[in-house]
Amino acid sequence: CLLYKYRAEIRSAVLKGVLLISDCYLYKKHLSTEAINQSDSELFTMAKTKELSSGVRDKIVDLHKAGMGYKTIAKQFGEKATTADAIIRKWKKHKITVSLPRPGAPCKISPRGVSMIMRTVRNKLRTTREDLVNDLKAAGTIVTKKTTGNTLRREGLKSCSVRKVPLLKKAHVQARLKFASDHLNDSEENWVKVLWSDKTKIKLFGINSTRHFWRRRNADYDPKNTIPTSGNMLWRCFSAKGTTALRQRDDGRGHIPSNLGQEPLSHIENG
């Protein structure tokens, strides 16, 4: 009997201890929840910006008109000197102290997103609007292609077709520049004696579409904004008296055969 009684007392003591531990755990959990809620409310309160009333702003401006300094005014109202300075500068510029209304809807793309797409376009001028939309979508900003194009235009970029220029080496460019400089002041009689040549490409099959890229104003013939062309098929020369017959290219590398310059000029003389 004593053994059973002893076991019953032990069991009740254990149950009381478990209940006591459970009560302590619930109480601690309740305290931690209250602390979290209190900290969240404090953070929410701190996130709000304090805005001075219009009456306080008017008093700050009146004290400034009376000749009082920024620091003295700020100290009198318990604010920072930068706050008083901002209110006074707004009054000097707009002659009002109330908050100005926001001009229009907010931008869909943040300044960081604008920097990202501008960096992408600078690195790859032929980036399409669809590529930029996908990049912004991956970063968490969903916009349309029209919005992306408008943003780039506000930054001074414009979508233009690529200028096609001859495929020239640096030595060829220098030689052409020297020729133009040497003959800049030649008379019209001298230019009549010059025999010119031209070449063009006629593509029967395949894609020969126009490519576009983003560039700033007056930068269409910048070397990075052009595309070199080659593989021309037809050639002819001309002068002030007429043109020669149209000749087809003999090789497949885009080079003009050397014997074309020795062709008789009967076509020009007869023309």
Succession of helices and strands: HHHHHHHEEHHEEEEEH
Unreliable stretches? 13-48, 264-271
Q: Could you give the count of β-strands? A: 7
- State mean pLDDT (0 to 100 scale): 72
Number of helices: 10
Could you walk me through the main structural features you see in this protein, from its secondary elements to its overall organization?
By secondary structure, the protein is mainly alpha-helical. Among the domains are: 55-94; 111-156; 163-184 and 193-270, no CATH class. The chain is built from 10 helices and 7 strands. It has helices at residues 2-47, 54-65, 70-77, 81-94, 111-123, 129-138, 145-154, 170-182, 188-192, 266-270; strands spanning 158-161, 163-166, 196-200, 212-215, 226-229, 234-238, 247-248. The strands form 3 sheets. Strands 3-6-7 form a 3-stranded antiparallel sheet, with no helix packed on it. It has a two-stranded antiparallel sheet with strand order 1-4. A hairpin with an 8-residue loop joins strand 6 and strand 7. Mean pLDDT is 72; it is low at 13-48 and 264-271. Residues 248-271 are annotated as: Disordered. InterPro entries: Homeodomain-like_sf (IPR009057), HTH_SB (IPR057667), RNaseH_sf (IPR036397), Transposase_5 (IPR052338), Transposase_Tc1-like (IPR002492), WH-like_DNA-bd_sf (IPR036388). Residues 46-97 form the Sleeping Beauty transposase HTH domain. Pfam families: HTH_SB, HTH_Tnp_Tc3_2.
Strands, helices and their partners?
Layout: H1 2-47, H2 54-65, H3 70-77, H4 81-94, H5 111-123, H6 129-138, H7 145-154, E1 158-161, E2 163-166, H8 170-182, H9 188-192, E3 196-200, E4 212-215, E5 226-229, E6 234-238, E7 247-248, H10 266-270
Helix pairs in contact: 2-3, 2-4, 3-4, 6-7
Domain Transposase Tc1-like: 115-185
Domain Sleeping Beauty transposase HTH: 46-97
Protein name: Transposase Tc1-like domain-containing protein
